[in-house]
């Protein structure tokens, strides 16, 4: 609605500015509001709160799914998970952090996807990785080194065992600590820590092999 | 986490970060807004499946209540019908007559007149005499004609009225028949005196004497005309 329309409806410009200022001053900055409060706001009917929440988590969640399920299924799963969040809003309770709840739902949906597809989490990309290693060995251009490293890292992540990959992604994408990873995946703290350690070790080994090959 | 792990983390964080498409974002945000706007978010007390269950329960309860009532009504109707049929063709027995002319019934009809408990009662109303004379007793044929009107001629209302008329005629006829077959004549004291006087004039003195005794017994408080008693006494002697 334009200012002109507001003036036609009887709101003169100073009033409109006052109202705008009031709204801005009453609502704290989006970054200050916790995920849990935003979700509670959405539960009570504030659609804008959900938008803020969505903008915060859309990228990490998307990549969390993408790295595990591949490009083919990512959009379907991503949409399903958010719809699950939307439909479960009335049963939402602040027992744990919103992030833990979100990734727990995502994890369950991914597991369900594996069961339906009767697939391994992601096909092993060992062959791809080998071919990239070969290509890297032959690549003389240093400008492409960083991007190739990224690509190698992605393939190395894809080659991780499922539990380790999940733990790694929960740490790197969702920003969860070991304890939250343990809660999300339903394992003990030690198990989560172990998975994470093995994941990093494997990635490190893969990348070192590449460096050695150079 | 050692420095190598940090390097891997850093490398991962600086890698390409694919994100959902704009269309996907819009679709999810639209779904979130629709969910908030939808009335199902606040379900009212009349939403859900319970109204159907409540309706079924109400029907069952009403059925359980109504069926015995309807059965009872049917029984009552059948009983009424049977009673009407019985009334239309009365069979008078000695017992029914005794009940009809019992002292209790007499007291109800004439509370002032004392009756001896041992004697059988008799009807006291004079109008019954008049009714007996005036009331035309319908013959069997006429009664049947009243009871069974020609089919298709009278309307249902008229047929009902005719049926009620025939019922009342039948009742009256049965009452008259009962009075005729009663063991005692229905006489008032005055009429009884007239009867005694007539018997004296006819020369039936003994019978007149007997009737006078009966009159005295039935109406002990009635003062018999002294001239009649004198007349009887003189003739008897």
Rg of Cα set of chain B: 47 Å
> Can you tell me the overall shape of chain B?
rod-shaped
Order of helices and strands of chain A: HHHHHHHHHHH
Write down how many β-strands of chain A occur, each being a DSSP E stretch of 2 or more residues. 0
The helix count of chain B comes to 11
Sheet of most strands of chain B: none
* Unreliable spans of chain A: 1-14, 16-26, 123-127
Q: How many strand units of chain B? A: 0
* Distance separating the two termini of chain A: 62 Å
- Mean pLDDT figure of chain B: 71
Main interface pair? A-B, 32 and 28 residues
Strand content of chain B: under 5%
Distance between the termini of chain B: 159 Å
How would you classify the helix and strand content of chain B by structural class?
mainly alpha
What is the typical, i.e. mean, pLDDT of chain A? Answer: 78
Quaternary class: heterodimer
Largest sheet of chain A: none
Report on the architecture of this protein.
The complex is a heterodimer of chains A (214) and B (237). With 214 residues, chain A is an all-alpha fold. Chain A folds into 2 domains: 33-117, Rna Polymerase Sigma Factor, Chain: A (Orthogonal Bundle); 126-213, Winged helix-like DNA-binding domain superfamily/Winged helix DNA-binding domain (Arc Repressor Mutant, subunit A). Chain A is 75% helix and 0% strand. Among the domains of chain B are: 123-184; 189-236, no CATH class. At the A-B interface, α4, α5, α8 and α11 of A face α1 and α2 of B.
What is the secondary structure topology, with strand pairs?
The complex is a heterodimer of chains A (214) and B (237).
Chain A: H1 3-8, H2 13-26, H3 35-43, H4 47-69, H5 71-87, H6 98-117, H7 126-138, H8 145-158, H9 162-172, H10 178-185, H11 189-213
Chain B: H1 3-13, H2 22-37, H3 50-88, H4 94-100, H5 103-109, H6 126-134, H7 140-147, H8 156-180, H9 189-202, H10 205-218, H11 226-236
Helix pairs in contact in B: 9-10, 9-11
């Amino acid at each position: 609605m334009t200012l002109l329309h507001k003036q036609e409806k009887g709101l003169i410009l100073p009033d409109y500015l006052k109202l705008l200022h009031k709204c801005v001053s009453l609502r704290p900055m989006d970054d200050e509001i916790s995920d849990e409060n935003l979700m509670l706001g959405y539960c009570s009917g504030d659609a804008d709160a959900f938008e803020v929440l969505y903008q915060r988590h859309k990228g990490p969640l998307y990549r969390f799914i993408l790295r595990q399920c591949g490009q083919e299924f990512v959009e379907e799963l991503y949409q399903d998970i958010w719809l699950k969040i939307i439909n479960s809003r009335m049963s939402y309770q602040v027992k744990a952090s919103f992030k833990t709840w979100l990734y727990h739902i995502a994890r369950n949906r991914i597991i369900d996807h594996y069961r339906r597809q009767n697939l391994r989490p992601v096909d092993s990309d060992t062959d791809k990785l080998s071919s990239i290693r070969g290509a890297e060995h032959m690549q003389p251009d240093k400008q492409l080194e960083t991007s190739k490293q990224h690509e190698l890292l992605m393939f190395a992540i894809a080659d991780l065992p499922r539990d380790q990959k999940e733990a790694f992604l929960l740490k790197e994408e969702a920003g969860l600590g070991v304890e939250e990873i343990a809660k999300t995946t339903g394992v003990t703290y030690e198990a989560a820590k172990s998975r994470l350690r093995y994941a990093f070790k494997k990635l490190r080994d893969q990348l070192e092999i590449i460096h050695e090959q150079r | 986490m050692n420095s190598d792990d940090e390097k891997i983390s850093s490398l991962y964080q600086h890698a390409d970060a694919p994100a959902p498409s704009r269309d996907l974002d819009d679709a999810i945000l639209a779904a979130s807004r629709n969910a908030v706007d939808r009335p199902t978010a606040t379900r009212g007390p009349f939403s859900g499946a319970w109204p159907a269950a409540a309706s079924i329960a109400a029907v069952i309860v009403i059925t359980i209540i109504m069926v015995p009532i309807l059965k009872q009504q049917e029984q009552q109707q059948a009983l009424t019908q049977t009673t009407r049929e019985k009334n239309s063709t009365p069979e008078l027995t000695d017992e029914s007559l005794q009940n009809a002319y019992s002292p209790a019934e007499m007291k109800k009809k004439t509370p002032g007149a004392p009756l001896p408990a041992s004697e059988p009662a008799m009807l006291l109303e004079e109008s019954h005499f008049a009714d007996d004379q005036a009331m035309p007793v319908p013959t069997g044929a006429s009664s049947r004609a009243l009871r069974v009107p020609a089919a298709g001629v009278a309307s249902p209302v008229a047929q009902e009225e005719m049926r009620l008329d025939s019922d009342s005629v039948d009742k009256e006829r049965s009452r008259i028949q009962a009075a005729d077959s009663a063991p005692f004549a229905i006489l008032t004291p005055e009429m009884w005196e007239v009867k005694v006087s007539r018997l004296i004039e006819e020369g039936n003195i003994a019978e007149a004497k007997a009737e006078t005794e009966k009159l005295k017994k039935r109406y002990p408080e009635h003062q018999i005309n002294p001239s009649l008693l004198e007349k009887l006494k003189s003739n008897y002697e």
